[in-house]
Amino acid sequence: MTVEDRINELRAQLHRHNHNYYVLNAPEITDKEFDDLMRELQDLEQLYPEFSDDNSPTMRVGSDMNKNFTQVAHKYPMLSLANTYSEGEISDFYERVRKALNEDFEICCEMKYDGTSISLTYEDGKLVRAVTRGDGEKGDDVTDNVKTIRSIPLVLHGDTYPPSFEIRGEILMPWEVFEELNREREVREEPLFANPRNAASGTLKLQNSSIVASRKLDAYLYYLLGENLPCDGHYENLQEVHKWGFKISPLMCKCQTLLEVFNFINYWNQERKNLPVATDGIVLKVNSLKQQKNLGFTAKSPRWAIAYKFQAEQALTRLNMVTFQVGRTGAITPVANLDPVQLSGTVVKRASLHNADIIEGLDLHIGDMVYVEKGGEIIPKITGVDISARFMIGEKVKFITNCPECGSKLIRIEGEAAHYCPNETACPPQIKGKIEHFISRKAMNIDGLGPETVDLFFKLGLIKNTADLYELHVKDIKELDRMGDKSAENIINGIEQSKQVPFERVLFALGIRFVGETVAKKIARAFNTIDELKEADLETLKTIDEIGEKIAQSILSYFANEANRNLVERLKCSGLRLYRSEEETHDTTDKLLGQSIVISGVFTHHSRDEYKDIIEKNGGKNVGSISSKTSFILAGENMGPAKLEKAAKLGVKIVNEEEFLSLIS
Ligand code: IVH
User: Fold this and answer.
1) Ligand 1 mean position, distance from CA 143 (Å)
2) Positions marked active-site
3) Using one digit for the tens of pLDDT, what is the confidence trace for 305-314?
């Protein structure tokens, strides 16, 4: 078999396994077998770039090149749907259609998925373009990002599809993925996504498609457009589309009467809570394309369709008090304390008021009757005030000026909505939060020690910071409630063992704002010891990959604080690995320190990822695009002409593989 044949065979196999897994939900091979096939294909494509293909399954892993999206005009404008919350207006719609058509018709009912809409263009069975809705006339070309979504076929099945067509649908982030993503973001102290819709559209607009690939988006297609479509029925067309490899909603139903339509609506109004993705209503579409054409469009939306929106679950209750919570980072969250009220199956007593601007916008007074909603969001929120129920006006809710826990004056960072307590090292919930982070699994992973025990030790004054942990003895804790000799020994052993945790995880455990796992890893590669990091200035910090102004400033301000410096000193004396060990140091140098390097082309001795790793281990920074700040380009075979031209224009040096390897040897 020739290399080209093997490449084609692997591509066909991987497309088929992708479809089995992501569209049909019926995998035939294990994940490991899949990964092995993918790796073989990646290797072959790298070795034989002459057989490259924009629609190869390898395109799904994304690339880390930066891109700015280009705007593309939609061939057919992307209109929206007329919306209603009222069953009466659904009856009116049905009646209007009946009168206008004056013949029998069917209504296709389907879920209104709550994600972000996308328009896909296929030519000769291949995905050529994916464009966001934008303003309806033109949108952003997000093809590379969309290619990472496994349920979207890059190459179609069979041969019954039209030579050129467009298909539209919704890109979604399943609830499970959304919740996991927010959990990770919380650990990294990044702002949380309010709902899966924002998470999906935010992800689709990321510059780095390899991050998009990791976010596990999904897609349902619901609207086929073009000439020469297979059937006259919308429902029937979607069944065809499914055979070509697209994922369509399994929850579609053709209704012959208005009663059937209402049955569908009422059933899904309840059942939607059990779906793996967010929905916000039901879409009704006249099924026949011929009849759709007869009905036509208004300027904004089709006359042949309407969306019935589910009521966001809402309740009216009394606001008794507003309290303020302090998080691990010092961010203050105002919390509404309410008369308990039933909302989507749970009793709600508290709801978030987010920040000072929201409170001001609602003109909130104690005793007000307020609307509480649990939409796609995780925490219930106050969405409005029933002014007509305000008989006696209570005290106006004011945002606090001082920390409720430690009394420090609050600060508000320019451009941020939240207020912060700046007393990082002595404000109790901040300290406790920092200790909890320190002992967590991805940080020091201290066996036997959990948040409740930390809470107990803290309350009893046994620990005031993370360094105090290393001065605890079995005798100090074995007499405590529900403790005993065995648990006490376990905890002390766990603390002792944590002294072996490598430098990068200790750095992460310190809880420096914005220093998550990845950043900690990069820092641990760039500095031999914590003392070197402590002494580093802004410019040096910024030469490290992934570290920009914000993170660099945060590191500087961490070490500018004397309490933090003392803490680090004590941890060092206790024997924590605040330095790089022999084996970690072994293959690292600072030969490329301060250099920004672009990697381009195809290589023989190492893969691109390996080169990236080599650059970082030698203190350099791998950047995506060429600029006047680029130190040099590590160029393999087939470097693109545009890049060559740009490098020549900016006078950026080009270094080939051999030269590079001897540079760092
Ligand atoms: S059909 C011309 N079907 O709702 C009508 N839209 O306001 C084309 N949506 O932007 C849209 N689920 O993002 C259609 N089953 C569904 C849908 C759906 C969600 C979204 C879509 C559109 C918005 C309409």
Assistant:
1) 20
2) 112
3) 999 988 777 8
CA of 112 to the centre of ligand 1 (A): 6
CA dihedral (437, 440, 445, 451) in degrees, to 10, reads 100
Residue 568 contacts residue 510 (beta carbons within 8 Å):
yes
Q: Which atom of ligand 1 is closest in space to residue 112's alpha carbon?
A: 12
For residue 249, the ligand 1 atom closest to its alpha carbon is 15
User: Which residue of 74, 80, 265 sits with most ligand 1 atoms within 8 Å of its CB, as the best mutation to test the pocket?
Assistant: 80
What is the enclosing helix (H) or strand (E) of 325? Answer: strand 313-326
Residue nearest to atom 18 of ligand 1 (CA): 112
Q: Which residue has the higher pLDDT, 622 or 507?
A: 507
- Strand order of the β-sheet with 252-255 is 83-84, 305-309, 279-286, 107-113, 252-255
Distance CA(116)–CA(198), nearest Å, equals 8
Q: Lowest mean pLDDT of 446-455, 498-507, 577-586, name the range.
A: 577-586
CA distance 82 to 657: 59
- Encoded tokens for 629: 């700040």
* Residue 333 token pair: 């969250």
User: Which DSSP letter does residue 331 get?
Assistant: B
Q: Whose CA is nearest to atom 15 of ligand 1?
A: 112
What pLDDT, on the 0 to 100 scale, is given for residue 617?
A: 81
Going from the N-terminus, what domains does the chain have, and what CATH number goes with each? 3-61 (1.10.287.610), 83-309 (3.30.470.30), 314-389 (2.40.50.140), 428-500 (1.10.150.20), 503-585 (1.10.150.20), 596-664 (3.40.50.10190)
C-alpha–C-alpha distance, residues 401 and 409, integer Å: 6
What's the average model confidence in pLDDT over 388-393? 82
The protein residue whose alpha carbon is closest to atom 21 in ligand 1 is 117
Q: What per-residue string of b and e applies to 488-526 under the rule 16 or more CB within 10 Å gives b? A: bebbbebbeebeebebbbbbbbbbbbbbbeebbbbbbbb
Q: Rounded CA gap, 205 and 216, in Å?
A: 14
**What are 521-573's pLDDT values in tens digits?**
889 988 999 999 999 999 999 988 778 898 999 999 999 999 999 999 999 99
**Pairing, β 332-343 against β 346-352:** antiparallel
Centre of ligand 1 to C-alpha 81, Å, is 6
Maximum Cα interatomic distance, the chain, rounded to a whole number of Å: 88
At 419, which helix (H) or strand (E)? Answer: strand 419-420
Q: Identify whether the C-beta of residue 131 lies closer than 8 Å to the C-beta of residue 78.
A: no
Sequence-separated (6 or more) residues with CB below 8 Å from residue 107: 94, 97, 254, 255, 261, 284, 285, 286, 287
> Tokens standing for 481?
């409630």
Residues 6+ apart with CB under 8 A from 214: none
Task: Measure the N-to-C terminal CA separation of the chain; round to a whole number of Å.
Answer: 39
Within 6 A (CB) of ligand 1 lie 79-81, 110, 112-113, 117, 133, 170, 222-223, 283, 302, 305, 307
User: Is 352 in contact with 379 (CB distance < 8 Å)?
Assistant: yes
> CA distances (Å), 387 to each of 108, 354, 393, 650, in order?
41, 21, 10, 63
Strands 596-600, 632-635: pairing is parallel
